[in-house]
Design a protein that fits this description.
Strand content: under 5%
Largest sheet: none
Mean pLDDT: 82
Shape: elongated
Number of strands: 0
Radius of gyration: 26 Å
Distance between the termini: 18 Å
Number of helices: 21
């Protein structure tokens, strides 16, 4: 999805409460922040489970524990501290890891703990400790999916500089271009191997802080592309683990655009309402200096999400925002550099097709597909299915069947599960309205199998 032509991957995206929060003016950062808390809690961080367990074992609420701590400190020092329920909550959430000495002693006494460590309390970490924890957390996403880095024969250099990262980035940009010609079953290992190399450098080399940030940002992009390939091939668990990795890495380097992209990937692959809300929030909260093509890409995906729930007005507004983003003549990162007016026309056609507005869907799809090469088989097959739907909506049965047949010819040769699934849907719809030849097409599409590996 972060490659040359990712937009077909968004079919079926269900937006959550994004439309509601936007109309109500709810601060966008709060939705994204809530999502971050949910995701980190899913992986066991940053909740201090030891501390919480001690408190619950004593049957104490957070306010009651705070009161007892204050009492203990006052008896010991003659001064009553300002510890309250919020402070206890911040300890449990990991925001406070090393309270003042008197507070630590009070907590140990009230909770009957022999050591501070037993309560999950520890001194402030160094920057190196934090970097190590972030890297461990990122790799945990991959371990959950059963992914391990491939064995790489070359020994990493002792030091990595900006020139090395630039070379890696340019190489990966060339590999991203393969996404337009091949399905995820063919490209996954290319992308994942590049991510493994980047992780190897992050683990084993010395470098300046700016170089480390560049490497983590590149890893975020590589993980999203590898996740997209896994999703395209039908391996959703692996895809979600990689999207989570990409999200964590994007947050680490403060890239709002890559964060938003990861959230949209997670939303589509999992259907989680929290991730959908956060993706919508992230799109709205993009900084004014965000690359125009990134804005256009993310707004076009929002248009698609609105279309899938029938919100024509919101979809139209999002498409307008996407067009406005393309007017900005700026440099764009490779993961969104493919976005142009032709791609946006295709998305607009798909949006109006889903909204059953064939008069608005057919012209842009026809015009774009006329110049679309067959070598981009996966995407062209997908686009043809929405053109076929639009033809059925206006009652042009012959054109609908022809478009579906052309999509079928392209879909069965590509290592992706999505085109053939869409072709089957179109064939079934044609059969339902008794299009001549549809019954035979349904039979042939049901028997067809995409050349997908049994495991990645």
């Amino acid at each position: 999805m972060v490659g040359v032509h990712p937009t077909p991957g968004m079919e079926g995206l269900r937006p959550g409460a994004g439309a509601e929060y936007q109309r109500s003016g709810y601060p966008s950062w709060r939705t994204a922040q809530n999502y971050r808390q949910i995701r980190t809690s899913d992986w066991g961080e940053p909740i201090n489970t030891n501390f919480r367990a001690f408190r619950l074992a004593k049957g104490l609420s957070q306010p009651k524990l705070a009161e007892l701590v204050c009492d203990h400190v006052e008896r010991a020092t003659g001064h009553r501290p300002g510890t309250d329920a919020q402070a206890i909550s911040r300890i449990e959430c990991g925001e406070i890891t090393w309270p003042r000495r008197a507070t630590r002693q009070a907590l140990m006494a009230v909770l009957d703990s022999e050591t501070e460590a037993a309560l999950g309390l520890y001194p402030k970490r160094t920057t190196r400790d934090a970097d190590k924890d972030e890297a461990t957390k990122r790799r945990a996403f991959l371990a959950v999916a059963g992914l391990t880095a491939p064995l790489l024969g070359n020994r990493p250099p002792a030091h990595v500089g900006a020139i090395d990262v630039d070379h890696m980035r340019r190489k990966f940009t060339r590999l991203e271009a393969l996404d337009s010609e091949y399905g995820g079953g063919d490209t996954f290992h290319l992308y994942f191997t590049e991510l493994a190399r980047t992780e190897q450098l992050l683990r084993s080399t010395t470098r300046r802080l700016a170089v480390s940030e560049s490497l983590v940002g590149l890893a975020a992009q590589q993980a999203q592309q590898a996740g997209w390939a896994a999703f395209d091939a039908g391996f959703n668990k692996i895809a979600v683990a990689l999207f989570d990795y990409g999200y964590s890495a994007a947050r680490e380097v403060g890239s709002r655009e890559l964060e938003a992209n990861s959230l949209i990937h997670i939303a589509y692959a999992t259907g989680e309402s929290e991730s959908i809300e956060a993706a919508d929030a992230a799109c709205v909260a993009l900084s004014p200096g965000a690359p125009g093509k990134a804005v256009a890409m993310l707004q076009s995906r929002r248009a698609w999400s609105f279309a899938t729930v029938g919100d024509k007005a919101a979809a139209a507004r999002a498409l307008d925002s996407a067009h406005a983003g393309l007017e900005a003549m700026d440099d764009s990162p490779s993961w969104c550099s493919w976005m142009n007016h032709a791609e946006l026309d295709i998305m607009a056609g798909r949006v109006w097709s889903v909204l059953h507005e064939p008069e608005r869907a057919i012209p842009p799809l026809q015009q774009s597909l006329a110049a679309y090469p067959d070598i981009w088989a996966r995407d062209k097959a997908l686009y043809l299915t929405w053109l076929a739907d639009a033809y059925l909506d206006i009652g042009d049965r012959e054109q609908a069947l022809a478009a579906t047949e052309q999509a079928f010819t392209l879909a069965r040769e590509v290592s992706s599960v999505r085109p053939l699934a869409r072709v089957r849907e179109c064939a079934q719809r044609a059969l339902a309205v008794e299009v001549a030849g549809a019954e035979d097409l349904v039979r042939r599409t049901a028997a067809a199998r995409s050349p997908i590996p049994l495991q990645l």
